[in-house]
Amino acid sequence: MSRPDRRDASQIRALHCVLGQLNRADGSAQFSAGNTSVLCGVYGPVDVKVYDEKLDRAHIEVKFRPDIGVPMTKDKWVESAIHNTFEREILGQLHPRTLVQINVQVRQGDGSVDAMAINATTLALIDAGIPLRATVAAATCAVLATGDIVVDPTQEEADAAQSTHTFAFSNQQTDGPAYVDSRGEFTMDQYDACYDMCANAVERILAFMRSAVEGKVVKENQIASS
């Protein structure tokens, strides 16, 4: 099959990330795949308002903003997905009665935005030093009208697809994905194929994340010792 950008069906777009570019945030990351780019800033743990205070853990707040216009229903869904995924992964009991605020801004959207938002959030939390149970990464697959399945679809491919499927996995999870979002019409065989293809893509994304974090640590150590 031929894709608009000439990738193979199982090939993700070129990945790029920048850590710590927001000076006022405790941690930040811009994560890009092809023409899709998402920026995440993390603030906290900081003081929390009384009505949000939790005695046994930190309160997690997520704000998601699209690249154009005001947030719509689909953007609120992504916001909820990020919140639910990371409320489980952040070790909030280590910082009770505090707030961890996650601000996610789409810089450019060309498919797989929810997956890239999860990836940016993971790296921003690591950059901020927020303790996590595990490292989480996500990927999206699309089932095309032809029945072909492609990973990391562009917006053009996603718009023409029968269904889209986003899966997030952690590097320590053995009991299934940390997050699933499937939309459209599909068979269980197609769902299983998307699951496997996304799981393979996430392995590559996790390796990229590990390399990015290690690279920043090495750079900071070089600066500190100079």
Query: Can you summarize the main beta sheet?
Result: 5 strands, mixed
> Beta-sheet strand percentage?
25-35%
- Average pLDDT level: 92
List the uncertain runs: none
Strand order of the largest sheet: 1-2-3-5-4
Spatial gap, N to C terminus: 52 Å
Please tally the helical runs, counting DSSP H or I stretches of 4 or more residues.
4
β-strand number = 9
Could you tell me the radius of gyration in angstroms? 18 Å
Please state the structural category: alpha+beta
Please trace the helix and strand order, writing H or E for each element.
EEEEHEHEEHEEH
Categorize the overall geometry. Answer: globular
Helix content: 25-40%
Describe this structure in words.
By secondary structure, the chain is of the alpha+beta class. It is 34% helix and 30% strand. The protein has helices at 73-89, 113-128, 155-160, 188-225, and strands at residues 15-19, 27-33, 36-47, 59-65, 98-108, 136-143, 149-151, 163-170, 179-184. The strands form 2 sheets. The chain has a 5-stranded mixed sheet with strand order 1-2-3-5-4. Strands 7-6-8-9 form a 4-stranded antiparallel sheet, sandwiched between helices. Strand 4 (59-65), helix 1 and strand 5 form a beta-alpha-beta unit. Helix 1 (73-89) packs parallel to helix 2. The N and C termini lie far apart (52 Å).
Throw out a few tags for this protein.
single chain, 226 residues, alpha+beta, five-stranded mixed beta sheet, 4 helices
